[in-house]
Design goal:
Elements: H1 3-18, E1 24-28, H2 53-56, H3 59-64, H4 66-81, H5 87-98, E2 103-107, H6 113-116, E3 123-124, E4 127-134, E5 140-142, E6 161-165, H7 174-185, E7 189-193, H8 204-211, E8 215-219, E9 232-234, H9 238-241
Parallel strand pairs: 1-2, 1-7, 2-3, 7-8, 8-9
Antiparallel strand pairs: 4-5, 4-6
Helix pairs in contact: 7-8
The structure holds nicotinamide-adenine-dinucleotide (NAD).
Nicotinamide-adenine-dinucleotide binds at residues 29-31, 33-35, 38, 40-43, 108-111, 126, 194-196, 198-199, 219-222, 224, 237-238.
Length: 246
């Protein structure tokens, strides 16, 4: 085994022991779903017809061309619909099942794969791609149709429906954010998985946890700005690393 391999092995063992006691927060980003073939925003697959998802994921883009924005979400919903939770999602479900009173799962993902894996009470910072909201009357509901038969979809009131997710520049749902902050402040171990730690305010939770005394674990094959806050960095795919922390 290589030197680096041995270091990762001993870090995995140390993290496994640290998860046996105290409050745990698992904080996930798009990378945990990469092995379920859902593209990340910043990975090699992160482009769609030469548009950057970051430019399409705004209220301004939706206002100027709702059909174009919907074509992207319709495509993404199709990919997510075909996806299954991977061993990374399932490991977090198992961690929660073992210690429900000391585990909180906070996700930036909108794909619903944590719930499909059986995770309960997920704190969802950026909404849910399977819910739609009317920009005129505000009515919100679940919609799993894929592909949509009409783009953009229209509400009963005649208004345009949008995905009920948080776009760049929009406020996070206050109740979800408060839960995430409370859990991060009281975390003993904060595990950031598959996130580039670039999208704020969500990425700020890593700092909040660290400043409140938590040990920070990073699970990611690539470096991130949050690495400097880490007690342990586990370089590798979430689907391989997380099952080994159980
Ligand atoms: P991001 O796209 O900015 O970064 C993805 C991160 O995952 C990168 O750091 C990458 O190195 C890492 N990664 C890639 N493969 C991995 C693997 N197998 N295991 C572990 N890590 C892996 O994602 P982000 O930080 O979540 O921020 C982007 C925003 O995009 C979020 O707000 C999120 O809501 C949204 N988003 C969500 C989905 C989804 O719901 N699945 C998909 C794309 C984007």
């Amino acid at each position: 085994m290589s030197r680096i391999g041995e270091e990762v092995e001993s870090a995995i063992e140390a993290v496994r022991l640290s998860l046996r006691t105290g409050q745990i927060v698992a904080f996930t980003g798009a990378g945990i779903s990469a092995e379920s073939h859902v593209p990340t925003f910043r990975g090699a697959d992160g482009l769609w017809r030469n548009y950057s998802p970051e430019k399409l994921a705004t209220a301004e883009a939706f206002e100027s061309d709702p059909r174009l924005v919907w074509e992207w979400y319709d495509w993404l919903r199709g990919l997510i619909h075909a996806a299954q939770p991977n061993p990374g999602h399932l490991a977090l479900t198992e961690l929660q099942r073992r210690s429900p009173e000391r585990f909180t799962l906070v996700t930036q993902n909108m794909d619903g794969l944590h719930e499909m894996a059986g995770s309960q009470d997920v704190v969802k910072l950026h909404g849910d791609i399977w819910r739609l909201r009317c920009v005129s009357c505000g009515r919100e509901g679940r919609n799993e149709q894929t592909p949509m038969d009409h783009l953009p979809p229209i509400c009963r009131c005649g208004g345009t429906l949008r995905p009920a997710i948080v776009w760049f520049g929009e406020m996070l749902p206050v109740d979800q954010w408060d839960r995430a902050m409370d859990a991060s402040r009281s975390a003993d171990v904060f595990v950031a998985i598959g996130t580039s730690a670039l999208v704020y305010p969500a990425a700020g939770l890593v700092q909040v946890a660290r400043q409140s005394g938590a040990r920070v674990v990073i699970v990611n094959p690539d470096p991130t700005p949050a690495d400097e806050l880490a007690t342990w960095i586990l370089r590798g795919p979430a689907g391989e690393i997380l099952p080994r922390l159980l």
